[in-house]
């Protein structure tokens, strides 16, 4: 789950991470009032889940409250396009107004889970304020890393090594160490999956501050953080993904043309691979899960086929815990209820595959039945190509 910058700053502040003073505004009037309260120059920042807002014109400096109002009226309601939003952009509903900082240096600080090492890694770089993926790709030596042992957590010497590596001096070292430790604590205690401060700045007056803040959370841990779960903004999420999450379906929208309905995440990944291999690409990842019943299959089919880029659907079920006849019943029931105008390929294997195939054949509905995964992939790709 993602949250907005202003929400991340509030969470981080509660853990003792220094952030500029500010407040969120939903109208130009509110932005003006906040700027008046804060005093001096402010920065007006579009709140959308995507980064790269600066490049897209979603971040503006304002010298006084009147200008803050003007900037807010430009930004609120705009369709903000950034390198991370895609070409259609994202509608801005609110702005975060904060005291402007006189920047001396822009640095980078991030915490991620390194799955290969099964460890959290704290990363820091003097090359802040820019695209960190680019820095990692072209000049990896500019990124410092501290791998955290889960049994002991981030050690003070590690935070000091990062602070020194960032070139902090004098009192800034103490501030940097406390910043890094507080960020780590926030990450661990809120079950983050990613925390990123880009840029972390040293101001002209020598303060170490989070100028930007990004926090993503582990969806599976949100049951124990109701306060954070409340920060979810479904307007920022893909509508089909939001719909799927209502039914506990593991659905992720992708940009291909073959709608895939599969049971089990591993089989879903393999299905996506083989669709690619056969010459097309998946429109989604969808794991209908183990306890599949008619309702789930129906909802899954409805979500899958309401995606306009889907040119054909591949249902690939391995009957282990889930029985193929149940899935077949679901597919038949779904096709009776919802109109599906694209070709359908079904592959059933495992428990009650014969019974499942029989149900499909007796239904009088139109679809191709395949036995082998390869055959199924080739059939669905053929269907896509014939449709084109
Ligand atoms: P992003 O583009 O979505 O990553 O948004 P950021 O919050 O990182 O802002 C982008 C850039 O705007 C930063 O790297 C800064 O250079 C600039 N910026 C943001 N806030 C301030 C500020 O208070 N003062 C100054 N001078 N620049 C700022
Ligand atoms: Mn940023």
Protein described:
The chain has three domains: 1-20 and 103-236, ATP-grasp fold, B domain (D-amino Acid Aminotransferase, Chain A, domain 1); 21-100, Dna Ligase, domain 1 (2-Layer Sandwich); 238-387, 3-Layer(aba) Sandwich (Rossmann fold), CATH 3.40.50. It has helices spanning 5-14, 28-38, 65-75, 132-138, 156-165, 171-189, 226-229, 239-246, 265-277, 294-305, 324-337, 353-362, 373-387, and strands at residues 22-25, 42-46, 59-62, 79-80, 90-91, 95-99, 103-114, 119-125, 143-148, 192-203, 208-210, 214-217, 250-253, 258-262, 284-287, 312-319, 344-350, 368-370. Helix 2 packs antiparallel against helix 3 (65-75), helix 5 (156-165) crosses helix 6 and helix 11 packs parallel to helix 12. Helix 11 (324-337) links the parallel strand 16 and strand 17 (344-350). The two termini are 36 Å apart. It is built from 13 helices and 18 strands. With 388 residues, the chain is an alpha+beta fold.
Short summary:
The protein has 388 residues and is an alpha+beta fold.
């Amino acid at each position: 789950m993602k949250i907005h910058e202003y929400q991340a700053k509030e969470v981080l502040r509660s853990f003792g991470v220094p952030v500029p003073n500010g407040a969120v505004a939903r109208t130009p009037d509110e932005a003006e009032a906040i700027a008046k309260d804060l005093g001096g120059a402010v920065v007006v920042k579009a709140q959308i889940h995507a980064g790269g807002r600066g490049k897209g014109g979603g971040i503006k400096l304002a010298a006084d409250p009147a200008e803050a109002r003007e900037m807010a009226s430009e930004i609120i309601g705009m369709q903000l396009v950034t390198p991370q939003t895609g070409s259609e952009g994202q509608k801005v509903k609110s702005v975060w107004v904060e005291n402007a900082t006189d920047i001396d240096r822009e640095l980078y600080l991030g915490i991620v889970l390194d799955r290969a090492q099964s460890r959290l890694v704290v990363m820091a770089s003097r090359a802040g304020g820019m695209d960190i993926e680019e820095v990692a790709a072209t000049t990896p030596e500019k990124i410092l890393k501290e791998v955290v042992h889960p049994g002991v957590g981030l050690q003070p010497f590690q935070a000091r090594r990062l602070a020194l590596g960032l070139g902090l001096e004098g009192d800034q070292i103490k501030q940097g160490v406390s910043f890094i430790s507080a960020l780590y604590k926030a990450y661990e205690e809120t079950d983050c999956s990613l925390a990123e401060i880009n840029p972390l700045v040293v101001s002209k007056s020598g303060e170490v501050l989070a100028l930007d803040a990004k926090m993503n959370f582990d969806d599976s841990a949100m049951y124990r953080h109701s306060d954070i779960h409340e920060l979810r903004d479904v307007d920022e999420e893909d509508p089909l993904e939001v719909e799927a999450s209502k039914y506990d379906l593991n659905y992720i929208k992708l940009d291909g043309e073959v709608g895939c309905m599969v049971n089990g995440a591993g089989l879903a990944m393999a299905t996506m691979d083989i669709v690619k291999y056969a010459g097309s690409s998946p429109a989604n990842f969808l794991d209908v899960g183990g306890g599949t019943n008619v309702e789930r299959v129906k909802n899954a089919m409805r979500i899958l086929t309401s995606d306009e880029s889907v040119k054909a659907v591949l249902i690939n079920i391995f009957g282990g815990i889930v029985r193929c006849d149940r899935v077949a019943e679901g597919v038949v029931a779904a096709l009776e209820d919802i109109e599906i105008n694209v070709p359908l390929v079904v592959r059933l294997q495992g428990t009650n595959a014969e019974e499942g195939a029989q149900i499909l054949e007796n239904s009088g509905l139109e679809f191709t039945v395949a036995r082998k995964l390869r055959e199924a992939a080739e059939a669905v790709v053929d269907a896509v190509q014939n449709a084109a």
